[in-house]
Amino acid sequence: MQTKVDTVPMLLGGEWVHTEDIFEVENPQSQEMIARVPLASKKDMTHAIEKAHQAFVESNTIPTHERMRILTYVADFLVEHSEDYARVIASEGSKTIKEARSEVKRASQTLRISAEEARRMKGETINFDQNEGSENRIGYHYRFPIGVIGAITPFNDPLNLVAHKVGPAIASGNAIVVKPASVTPLSALKLAEAFMEAGLPEGFLSVITGSGKELGENLVTHPLVQMVSFTGGSQAGRRVTEKAGIKKVSMELGSNSPVIILADADIEGAVKSCVSGAFSAAGQNCIGVQRIYVEKEVYPHFLDSFVSSTLELKVGDKMDESTDVGPMIEEAEAVRVEKWVEEAVVEGATIAAGGKREGNFYYPTVLTGVPQHAQIAKEEIFGPVVMIEAVESLEEGVNKSNQVNYGLHAGIFTKNIDHSFYAIKHMNVGGIMINDSSDYRIDEMPFGGTKGSGIGREGVKYAIESMTEQKVVCFKLEEE
């Protein structure tokens, strides 16, 4: 019996639109087609941007209370329909159903935080009389929305990462045009449905589906787009910065996250945290654990326990409640990971667990003895592979942690407060987790990295700061 496949429209300027050209969305586990969506053209993207600009100009800014109401409505809507959203996430992407449910919960929190931050967009008074001759001046500054935001989102968190762009944009009074990942557009479209249900004015949100090569440059370079918010790979991010021109740019470009395990750490707790951090979402996670540096005294114990825990993970059907690791997003990605592992082995690495591929599935893999120059040691693997290495000291672990062109998150496990603060001071990253793996984040905190990991910070409050400008107001009063 053939499953009925829906043709899902995209949201363009407040209208649900079908196009003559379409493309298919597949379940990466079965390669079964689950939906058809519009293959938008450059003309469609231009139209969406123009509609967004028109809505922004004509609205004279949506009142704060209304922005709060809309965002709260959508947050509640996600909770009420959480299983529907989770099944869409799990069907089109790599996440297990358990991981998908967690993402829906986080997306709802992101939007609720956005509603709360809308009321906190405040300025402050300025003491102009601090300058001699300005005694008769009084004024203040406040934040105002910049206009149209262009957002490009990845496949690995197809709902929450869209919410991290749409939530702050609407909270701050901007219009936004979203280009979701071509392999996972359904979650973004389903989120858009909730915003339309909430009564968001037409034009303030568009979700345009199609080819990144076809649509991305138009979204990035269009003069009516005042800011580009991009989450994705470093190569694509570099192209965005080259093409964007003089406009605001926010970028989260991934990482190669290190974790340091010191001899005084809770080893079993560290193993549990790092196994989860390395292999959740099939390793397709920008803050996932990729490199682990373990003090030599506890290295054998940590490695044995880590390998044992890794081998206990269940790889299989995403919809099975007992599954720990699902498929990668595409077979080509699993093949790439397989190739990187094989290259590392040729260069001297040893496979302590895993190293096996079956179609889109790549089994959780532990490598030891990976040389520093190997590609897998320097770049973001974005797959279920972790490297474990013994080090002589905290200082050596920190130095090796810093020897890549990424700096998003890091972790350190220790009971020594001085060691913690040494790592805090010397690790060149945007966030460091003490007695936790790099794979920890809440949606309110500033999120971003150093070096090749990006530009600026996400996290609702900090995204709002990027999506707004400050305006100074000064009154010159009549002298008495």
**Count of distinct strands:** 25
Task: Please list the strands of the largest sheet in the order they lie side by side.
Answer: 15-18-19-14-13-21-22
Structural class: alpha/beta
C-alpha termini separation: 88 Å
Q: How many helices in DSSP terms?
A: 15
Number of domains: 2
What top-tier CATH class of the largest domain fits best? Alpha Beta
Largest beta-sheet characterization: 7 strands, mixed
Low-confidence region ranges: none
- Level of helix content? 25-40%
Strand content: 15-25%
CATH architecture of the largest domain: 3-Layer(aba) Sandwich
CATH topology of the largest domain: Aldehyde Dehydrogenase, Chain A, domain 1
Overall body shape: globular
- Round the Cα radius of gyration to an integer and report it: 24 Å
Function: Part of the sulfo-TAL (or sulfo-SFT) pathway, a D-sulfoquinovose degradation pathway that produces sulfolactate (SL). Catalyzes the oxidation of 3-sulfolactaldehyde (SLA) to sulfolactate (SL).
EC number: 1.2.1.97
Pfam families: Aldedh
Organism: Halobacillus yeomjeoni
